[in-house]
Write a structure and sequence with these properties.
The chain has 3 domains: about 1-55; about 60-160, DNA polymerase, domain 1, CATH 1.10.150.130; about 175-320, Intergrase catalytic core (hpI Integrase, Chain A), CATH 1.10.443.10. About 45% of the residues lie in helices and about 10% in strands. It is built from 14 helices and 8 strands. The protein has helices spanning about 35-50, 55-60, 65-75, 85-95, 105-115, 130-150, 175-190, 195-205, 210-215, 245-255, 285-295, 305-315, 320-330, 345-360, and strands at about 1-10, 15-20, 30, 220, 225-230, 240, 265-270, 280.
Amino acid sequence: MASIQKRISKDGEVSYRVQVRMKGHPPETASFARLTDARIWAQNTESAIREGRHFKTSASKKHTMAETIDRYHREVLSHLKNPINQKKYLSFWKEVLGHYTLADLTPSLIIEKRNALLGSENKFGRSISAATVNRYVQSLGHVFTVAMKEWEWTSDNPIAKISKFKEPRGRVRFLSDEERSALLLACQRSENPYLYSIVVLALSTGARKNEILSLKWPDVNFERRTIILNETKNGDRRTLPLQGLAHDLIYAHSKLRVLGCDYVFPSRKVVKGKDGKFFYQPIDIRTAWENAVKKAGIEDFRFHDLRHSAASYLAMNGASLAEIAEVLGHKTLQMVKRYAHLSEAHTSSVVASMNQRIFGHV
């Protein structure tokens, strides 16, 4: 039932405090300047509770964004293998929105902070793109989803009302022969002992950074010269051929592996778990990578472009789009069509061979 109390301030202003109490639900309160508005709110709130449309809005007024992100870290991110990017994204949101309660976070407020992020520089001096900003917003959206569905801290996900920035078409940025030589030399000279092997493996196999960093020794088969990726972006297991220089480097590296650690590329830091036991984590190569790219004098190149480079080299050496898709782990050819123009020579030779067989001449 709803109760309405008339209140008069010292200045003589009249207000009406409404409280709705229903069995099985926490009390809801609100204040209005007009009695009519107070009655309408009470009626709507009671109806929403009876019909199951009302959530515990009082909870959203108690919990801040910082508190929500901290709980998300403990209960969600702590169970992920390598949530480096998510931690970075949520650290930003905690800084700019952490002092707000969930009830105060509106789409317009989030959009304001999001727009300020677009075009700003990261710690490496690079401009943050629209695609990256979309990842920031997406990470915050999942926090709201968990807070709404699992914790009942809020009844709304404001991210659902925010449109994404339009992202550019998938780019094809691959290393020239000169750039590749310069980058590999810079990686060899890096203070990070694993960077050179990691970059060679990325160029050799087209594997993603997280797939490489989360690689474990039981997944490497030197007899068959293969790597089994158990944790991929699309959730499927994938087999990579381990050939040439990549094979030699990983084999030599296996002779110096860290005892008691399954990671091929472990961090030097050992982390203490909640059970008191110590364990290894994958290495973080962000700083070492950025420094190597800078020393090599390469512009506009990201680690993920090593994957584009591998695919481009495959295309230029005669691999079909279906073969490239199989190596990269794409389920359809749509993602690898961007490399079609690089395999024109191979396509031309296939058509020429068909014409010669059918018509007797090219």
